[in-house]
Specification:
single chain; 371 residues; alpha+beta; seven-stranded antiparallel beta sheet; four-stranded antiparallel beta sheet; 7 helices; elongated
Length: 371
Amino acid sequence: MHFEGVVTIKAPRERVWRFLTDPYAVSQCAPGLESLEIIEPNHKFRAVASVGLGTVRARFTGDVEWLDIDPPKRASMKVHGVAPGSAVDATSEMVLSDGANGVTEMRWSVDMTIVGTIASTAARVMGGVTQKLTGAFFDCVKKRIEVEVAAEMVLIPEGPFVMGEGQASTTVHVPAFYIARHPVTNADYAAFVAATNYRPPPHWPGEQPPEALSRHPVVNVSWHDALAYCHWLSATTGYRYRLPTEAEWEKAARGTDGRAYPWGNDFDPSLCNSRESGLGGTTPVDYHARGTGPYGVMDMLGNVWEWCSSLYADVPYRADDGREDLAAAGGRVLRGGSWLDPAENIRPTRRLAASPEFLAPNIGFRVARGA
């Protein structure tokens, strides 16, 4: 059996390549996958999957081996799998090329031979079902890459930083993590609403935001709404997304040198959207690019307050004192200030608390995940 196709992915070729050559990422799209074991890093792995062909199901154990890799352009692999009374052999090739506007075109082909009981029993439906499963796999790859790229995550390295200021400051060690380069936008949130039938923010005119605000941060979302978005993003991409802890949020904003603001030690209303900026509402998440912090994370101050996972509790911060229990009752931390706030609230160290059900036109969020 021979199958082939073309998939257009809204992502840079290097990002598509990284996903396709990461067995753990790709395995999230494999139908019926039960387990994955790395045999030789970057070369060979073993997978166990339960696959159905018509009314027949078989549990295959397969070895997958890269044959030829030319990063980030072309890769080929072979698969040999066995099930009771049956066997499958396949070779696959993927060729990546650059399209217009940062789009990647992926041409794929699969040649497959199935022999034994499952082949003879399911002969009438085997071709159609196998083609359907193969197409669904590459459609899943496309969707996961595009959603992951839209989140645009930035790696914050492991290590200590000074959290807080003045007599309330303390050194906190933070494991490595990823945080979104910008807050979740209206366009991002609209994709979640459309996919899940989740209730839209109350100020939207229906289930879609005004087109002119698509790149603005979503607002009028509660802490629970933010968690629901994280759960959907996790299920869609295969990565575990969450809200940042308040320690993670502050480190991403300030770095490790104790600076007062992401850009330095002096407040500058031209570098963020605050009351002093006089803009009177939210702005696109990349509008104040010059106010970017030491790690390249945007919009950490002003525009919208951002939900953190943490309960509002006394300083110093301790991750093991129960404040990161998502089931615990109490107010949750907001960080960053907003377009409504004066300069004294526009500081990385400023903390507010709000009920997890609270909504406001100057509260949004961004996502994080472990490294």
